[in-house]
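Researcher: Next entry in the queue.
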Amino acid sequence: MPTFALDTSTASPSLALVRGEEPVAELWLAPEPGSGRRVLEAAHGLLTAAGASADDLRDIVVGVGPGGFTGLRIGLATALGLGQALGVPVTGASSLEALALGLAAAAPDAPLVAPVLDARRRELFAAVYRPRGGGLDELAPPQAIAPGDLSALLERLGEPVAIGGDGVAAGGEALPGPLRTILPPGSAAHRVRAAALVRRVRDGAGLPARPVYARLPDAEVNRRRAAAAAPEA
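Model: Structure for this entry, 233 residues:
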């Protein structure tokens, strides 16, 4: 029985159907406004194309971020709703770890990989890992970080590192540097693969199906700013 996986941490949601260790079907939605709301429809199309139905699923794996607030909520709500309706377990997995596996495959000689996602607000969601035997050792945990601060972190680590993800463009001129390989713009490894989430769970790195935001939501930031600016009574 296959596993259905989805990741909505980026503007281009990823879906996959995995049987055993191998994906039998994968798709990415175009990075357009409202793409997250088309996930359920896309899931139906994926299952149909693979000759499967929702009743065939044995479990569901969902990316928990970090990523956009709305996207993560849509992905987790979809996964948990399906899991409850079908009576199958739902397990979370780190979206950055899934991206890191793709970087490690694309740059096998790099001792370190740094997946980066565009977090907006002039920040990146990023982490640093050392690929080891198909797994990952975490050197810097998932976090929201300014591109310049990430550059300083990589400099302190002092080892060659492969960088990729949709945050590369947002990182601008802060990311290139000595000992750093930035994947070319057309590389498929810049995308989070939902199938890689399943691999992390199979490797024992499953997480609770709860969002990892890595920072406060905009609404809370604005509330605190307004409270700080308000005159004292």
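Model: The mean pLDDT is 94.
Researcher: Noted, moving on.
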